[in-house]
Every structure is written in structure tokens, then in C-alpha cells.
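Q: How would the C-alpha cells look for this protein?
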Amino acid sequence: MALRGLLKAQSPFSKKLKLMLGLKPKNEFLYELALRHSSMPHTGKFADDPNNQRLEFLGDAILGSICADVLYRAFPRSNEGFLSSMRAKMVNRNTLNAIAVKIGIPDLLMAQKSGFHHAGSIYGDALEAIIGAVYLDRGYKVCYTFVKKKIINPHIDLDQLNEKVISYKSKLLEWAQKNRKVIDFKFLPSKKKNTYEVVLSIDGKQMARASGRSKKSAEEQAAKTAYGSKKLKTNP
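A: Here is the predicted structure in C-alpha cell form.
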């Protein structure tokens, strides 16, 4: 009877959660909360703590700490600037979103359809919230092991990450400062709604033209094109 009751108590959510985490949760509510997007209503047991934003805040800090420790040990001769840059790449939103999808977070995430308007960060946010939940539920040591074994080791290649560029705009501006060049981004009237068009010039010479859903994305795309073309000639 006791075994039958135990099997009955294991919901599909519990089974999927245990498979994803590689450990048995003690306080399942924390993980339900971690997988609850801000688009969900404030009802029932979630009336006082309705979504995963607080856990996301905590998980972000814990993840940053663990990544710092991993990098410190992996690159014993590297300086603070290199380590900071590598950590930024590890916790980059695109990186976390991709990992979240791979480990199955979309299958467990609770969100209203309207909440997926911001789908660009919704999965990565939930992953950070899950890390916060593991920390509160099982402590730092177990959380460290979870992050390293389930997130970093299988999904992040530190050598490849070292070659990855997060922001081409930042790289281009850094190159321009070193080489005493003047970078200018000029936005143009766009024919398409909710689209921004920008022209990037270096020392008054047009180097790239791009468009994007936001000014930031348009500038980044233009910078990527310009950086690539300059890199062939001057190795910025």
C-alpha cells in the first residue's frame, strides 16, 4: 500500500522534473514557481509569490558565482578581464536560452500565450530560476554540482566560447579607439513598420547598412558586417 501510494504521488511533472534535474526535489513548490512565467495569474498557492522573477534574480547571482569558480580553476594564468569576458559569454541570454531548450524547460514552463511575446528570454529566465530553486531546496554544494554536470559540462565548450564574440559593436568600438577611428551610426527612415535601418560609417566612409527589429539589433548587425570586412584588412 505504501509503495502504491508513492507511485500515485509521482505526477508527470515530478517525473519530468527529476529527469531534467538529475536529482530528487525536496520542495516541489519551488520548482513549480521557477517554471511559472509572469504572465500567469496570481491565484491559489501562487497568490503571494506568483511568478519566477525573484528566483530568477537569485539564480542569476548563483550561476555567476559558479561560472566564476569554474573559470578561475580552468584558466589559472588568465587575468580578471579575460575571466569577466568569459563569464559574460557563459551567462549570455542566447546561450542560456539554447541550453534551457536542450534540457527540456519549454515542456514544463507555465505561461499564458501572451507571455510568449518575449520568448527571446523566457526560457533562459526560467533556467536561472531553476538554479535558484535548486540552491534554496538543496544548498550550494548540490546546486554547484547540478550547474556543472547538467549545464556547463554538456553544453558549454570553454575553448569554443573563448572564440565567440558577444557584441560586434563593442569589438568594433574597441578597435576604433585603438586605431583612432571615428565610428558613426546613422538611422534612416524605414519603409517597414517596427523596423530600424542604420548606416555605419568609419571616418565618414560608409562601411555597412543593416536593419533590425530594434535599434540595438540593427546596430549590432551593421557592426558585425563592418567588423568582418575590417578584420580581413587590419585584424582589429
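The beta strands are 183-188, 196-202, 205-212.

The chain has a mean pLDDT of 85.

Upvote if useful.
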